Amino acid sequence: MHHFLKLNLLLLCILCVACQNEPKLENKKEVLGFNEKFNDAYVQSKDTSFDHMSKLRAANRAYGLANKQDSDSLLILALHRKTLLHNKLKQRDSAILYSKELLSIVENINDSVGIGKAYWKLGYYNDLASLKDSAYYFYNQSKKIHEALKDSAQAGRTLLNMAILLSDAGSYTQSDEIAIEGLTFLQNTNEEVSKASILNCIAINGKKQNQFEESLYWYKLAIETTNNIKHRNIYLNNIANIKRIKGEFIEAIRLYEQIIAEPAIVNDTKEYARILDNLSYTQWLFNKNESSLIGMKKALLLREEANNNSGQITSHEHLTEYYLETDLAKAREHANKMHDLTLKSDDVDDQLGALDLLMRSYENQPTIYSSYAKAYMSLSDSIQQVRNKLSNKYAKIRFDATQNRAENEMLRTRSAEEQLALEKSKRMNSVYIAIGVISIFVFAFILLLSRERYQKEKLQEVVLTESRISKKVHDEVANDLYQVMTKLEKQPTERDALLNDLDSIYNKTRDISRENNALDLEQDFGELLSDLLMSYKSDEVNIITKGLKKVSWKKTNSLKKTAIFRVIQELMTNMKKHSEAQIVILSFDEVKNKILIKYSDDGVGCQLKKNNGLLNAENRITSLRGKITLQSEKGKGFKTTIII
After folding, report:
1. Which of 65, 77, 82 is CA-nearest to residue 30?
2. pTM to 2 decimal places
3. How confident is the model at residue 621 (pLDDT cuts 50, 70, 90)?
4. Separation of first and last alpha carbons in the chain
5. How many other C-beta atoms lie within 10 A of the C-beta of residue 287?
């Protein structure tokens, strides 16, 4: 007992010191208000009901608030949203700019995970902006960080992107090397899609080098690696393409027909158009049947409607090939359309293909043929020069990374030795401090545990009491009243007035019973809430709900569900009795494993006084360590925010 008293005195002293250092109440309110504003803006930036521009405006507000507060953690959250949304809107320069700001912040606070993510973002956005050498550099930096963090999955995914960049640059051998390295990182992970994508990259490298058997081997391996239907169909289509190139038309047609019969393909316009075009083009190559033209034209129309630029290029290529044998004017028309589309894209190989088709369509007109031939040779030389430069840059980046890795290992070893010596000198001091802190925390934990257990027991008792009230009211009071009403029906004296009074009492009793009856929490809780809300809807009151299905109700425990149901029931009852509202809006969301519920109506509002109902609602939420705020003024409606 004497020791326990000493521990209490020590805890009291620490609390007194802490209280002296606490900020003023006004500052606390300012911080809380700020955090709510930031949270509202951040949540709106992720709201799927908004378009990308609206979400970006919300992210900009969050970014401005975080800057004003000078909070690194909030800035990081806001910048992740901003970079993502700038990219969605194809504002690549802004996505890159704010990713660099993100990198600077996480480097300042030495957040290794954050640094790895920021480098990956910079690699990805530079890749989309066609800044290939910068993309490769940032991907390589990201790969190094994730390798050091033992994050094999992310290191493997980054190497996949690097291998694709090398393949696009014509460095097929280096691409294969990077791809194989990526496979080693992914070997013991569940990243089936990434593994299959790497195998697909190796197969493409083989195809580009006319190593068709090698390519077929890797495509088949990719199909065996993933269960993703869409990806498997893409790889199967690639196998059929190789069969077509090899002149194995019957086998290619069989594969295309197999793919196009898949339900997943029929419902995917882009993939359906791809397979239809390939099938029709191959059928024409096989038997020169004019009916194949119908399928190729239909595929082009689908691609135009979907604004699929790369798909249209392929369609015009196939139609040019078709018309070269039958109608030179139409062949030139499609070749020119193909060339115009390739100028809008970044694929220089397609540009070469379009120039080659234009040359073939003007073989009988030497002057025009010569101009296209010169353009072809000039572009071909430029492509080769650019690819050589890129290949050299990629090789240098990898070489520098290898050199730096050895130097970093030496620095890490030296730093580790110095750190070990420093830790030894601090250890003894830390032991004494730790003993005191642990004692305080043990005491506080026992206190909190006891309090929480008491609150839960009280809440369970409330639920049981409600059920007993409901049953007793229904079984005894309501039944007795019903018997009296039945007797009065046989005695006409003053019957009508008494019957009306008793009917009113009966309805009130029934409502009390309904409000306190036991909840069936085994059924879908989202539907249970929806049914509750719809019961308050009428010609005069419109109930609008948002995000009800976004919450993981199955993971929510029964005490929380009961509290949420009863509190919403209380809010709706207050609305119906007092607010004169015409529109009620309830939004549901899940933020950091907590459920966020916002209620608002356009009623007459009131001077806030916590009656028994609202007091019970507050007690329910706080007993589960949640938070409820009520806001209302006369003429300005009623608002409630619940976090639980």
Report:
1. 65
2. 0.56
3. confident
4. 38
5. 11
